[in-house]
Design a protein that fits this description.
- There is one protein chain.
- This protein is of the alpha/beta class.
- It folds into two domains: 2-147 and 299-327, Quinone Oxidoreductase, Chain A, domain 1; 151-275, NAD(P)-binding Rossmann-like Domain (Rossmann fold, 3-Layer(aba) Sandwich), CATH 3.40.50.720.
- Helix 4 crosses helix 5 (173-184).
- The strands form four sheets. Strands 3, 4, 5, 8, 15 and 16 form a six-stranded mixed β-sheet that branches. The protein has a six-stranded parallel β-sheet with strand order 11-10-9-12-13-14, sandwiched between helices. It has a two-stranded antiparallel sheet with strand order 1-2.
- It is built from ten helices and 16 strands.
Length: 330
């Protein structure tokens, strides 16, 4: 089968013909139709996340159809079913985190497109327990970004509780999707972009934000919560300064540059900083039930599988007008 392979971080992916995988016990063999490109893929390829499986097939926002079912795989899937494969690929089910409903923190977890092969290929295998049925409302390309930008964004959003005034720093794929849920739930949305990025600020206002400005600005009202999707550490103290008493800053990325020091006074009055790690299957079930009711709309730009490096380069350079999605044609 065709695959785009990472041999060594910081090097371009290589187009290769590799053996088609076989499903082991509990796994599905999935013929891939689409795989969205995530900023985490860039962190993996650029060597910003440690110890990836090498060689590695990246990609963890996978949409495809079940081609073969391994022994004792989850009976909720049949041959031909459409499935979504997310970042969290396997957990041991037995550690203290798994047994307390926090499988996203499992000490021995495996991650799609990072520690196990992912979706920049014709086929992949995945643990059936960690795959999702996808809402019929979305075609394969539309559904792909929901599997990480949507799921991790949703977990980040739920961490903000019932915050009425919600700030979002970094208006990329996840922010665009989660903003739609926030507006559906009648939150007041404040969007922060790179200073001077008036085009993105205008997009946020057209979506429904009550205010949009640069990350170097203060909002017109104090925020009850803020989500930081940009991987920029200095945004953490900036967001703290924008919070009302008791507010929370949620760091929604898997990687962030160092956070600079800040005065304790900015944290005082029971403000909170927290991070989001991975996702749970419950997050996925809740999100895919909610998404078609909003309905969440995805913005995408498609590339053939062989142009994965071009898609990554354009993502790095901020030249995409939507989520890059690799389409895998037979």
């Amino acid at each position: 089968m065709r695959a785009m392979v990472l041999d060594k971080p910081t090097q371009p992916l290589q187009s290769r013909d590799v053996p088609k995988p076989k499903p082991a016990r509990g796994q599905l063999l999935v013929r891939i139709s689409a795989c969205a490109v995530c900023r985490t893929d860039i962190h993996v390829v650029d060597g910003e996340l440690p110890d990836p499986k090498l060689p590695l097939i990246p990609g963890h926002q996978i949409v495809g159809r079940v081609e073969e079912i391994g022994e004792r795989a989850d009976s909720k899937f049949q041959i031909g079913d459409r499935v979504g494969i997310p970042w969290l690929g396997w957990t041991d089910g037995d550690c203290a985190y798994c047994r307390s409903g926090r499988e996203n923190l499992c000490d021995n977890a495996l991650f799609t497109g990072y520690t196990i092969d992912g979706g920049y290929s014709d086929f992949t295998v995945a643990d059936a327990r960690f795959c999702f049925h996808l809402p019929d409302r979305y075609n394969d390309v539309e559904a792909a970004p929901l599997l990480c930008a949507g799921l991790i964004g949703y977990r980040s959003y739920r961490k903000t509780g019932n915050a009425r005034r919600l700030g979002i720093y970094g208006f990329g794929n996840a922010a665009h999707l989660i903003s739609q849920i926030a507006l559906y739930e009648e939150r007041d949305l404040f969007v922060f972009t790179r200073p001077g990025d008036t085009a993105t600020q205008q997009d946020a206002k057209e979506l429904g934000a009550v205010w949009a400005g640069g990350s170097d600005e203060m909002p017109p009202e104090k925020l009850d919560a803020a989500i930081i999707f940009a991987s920029v550490g200095p945004l953490v103290p900036a967001a703290l300064r924008a919070l009302a008493k008791g507010g929370i800053v949620v760091c929604g990325g898997i990687h962030m540059t160092d956070i600079p020091s800040f005065p304790y006074a900015d944290l005082w009055e029971e403000r909170v900083i927290t991070s989001v790690a991975n996702l749970t299957r419950r997050d996925g079930e809740e999100f895919f039930e909610l998404a078609p009711r909003v309905p969440i709309k995805t913005k995408t730009e498609t590339f053939p599988l062989e142009e994965a490096n071009i898609a990554l380069d354009r993502f790095r350079a901020g030249q995409l007008k939507g989520t890059a999605v690799l389409t895998i044609a037979e």
